[in-house]
Design goal:
Layout (H helix, E strand, L loop, with lengths): L1 H6 L2 H21 L26 H13 L3 E3 L2 E3 L1 H11 L3 H5 L6 H33 L5 H5 L18 H38 L10 E9 L8 E9 L2
Antiparallel strand pairs: 1-2, 3-4
Length: 243
């Protein structure tokens, strides 16, 4: 094979070289201009902040008109977009945003979450109130020391959940414990309310989102430029077609 290569005429070598250059030309055209780096070329300064172009009065009017066109809903005499109305309804009454979005199956989740958090918060609040009342009774002398010491065997019914507390240490511990948990569940209740508001907002934004069968995904092999190399790499391009 080696002898055959050396025996080939010069015109055949020249023709093969031109053919290789012609095939490589499309690959060179796809390479970015930064593929060959000039050592004498200094990188420009990029530490300056990019300033957005100032809108003209006409562009501002067009943008305001486009925003106004989206406000197709009304609430308390105000023109709102669909997401804004869903968010306000959910903020006013839990579950109202889900009803507006016609997501009725989410109502048990919303009311179950908020109802559970509200019930636990009420439990800790009432127990905290009882222990605070017991502390006031002891501090003002309305309950004697002997009554407090015998509270384990003779409960003080007026104290409700704290009726078996037989020392000031137990009363103080109860106050700290129930107050801490009450504050925690208040925050969780606020977070649950905000979560159902966020859910209503997302559903309203996705109301007009296209999820039909016309959404198709296509892929095909392609030669992709590789920075710093003359020969392109093998890859694939993915295209999402929407109607």
């Amino acid at each position: 094979m080696q002898h055959l290569l050396f025996a080939a005429p010069r015109w055949a070598w020249l023709f093969g070289l031109l053919l290789c250059l012609g095939l490589a030309r499309p690959a060179w055209a796809q390479l970015p201009s930064t593929a060959v780096v000039d050592p004498d070329l200094t990188r420009p300064q990029t530490d300056t902040a990019r300033v957005a172009p100032k809108l003209t009065k006409k562009q501002k009017r067009e943008q305001a008109a486009a925003d106004s066109a989206l406000k197709t809903e009304r609430l308390f005499g105000l023109r709102l977009t669909r997401p804004q109305k869903a968010l306000l309804l959910a903020g006013i009454a839990p579950g109202a945003g889900q009803i507006y979005n016609k997501k009725y199956w989410k109502l048990p989740l919303v009311y179950g979450l908020l109802g559970t958090l509200g019930g636990v918060e009420y439990f800790f609040q009432t127990h905290y109130t009882d222990y605070r009342y017991a502390k006031e009774q002891v501090a003002t002398g309305k309950v004697s020391a002997s009554q407090l010491a015998n509270a384990r065997t003779e409960p003080i019914e007026d104290w409700d959940s704290a009726k078996n507390a037989n020392s000031t240490t137990i009363i103080e511990s109860g106050i700290i414990f129930y107050r801490r948990n009450r504050d925690l569940y208040i925050l969780l209740l606020i977070g649950g309310h905000g979560l159902q508001m966020l859910d209503a907002l997302v559903d309203a934004n996705l109301h007009d989102f296209d999820v039909g069968k016309d959404l198709t995904l296509h892929w095909q092999p392609a030669l992709l430029p590789v920075p710093g190399q003359l020969v392109p790499g093998v890859g694939a391009t993915v295209a999402l077609r929407v109607k």
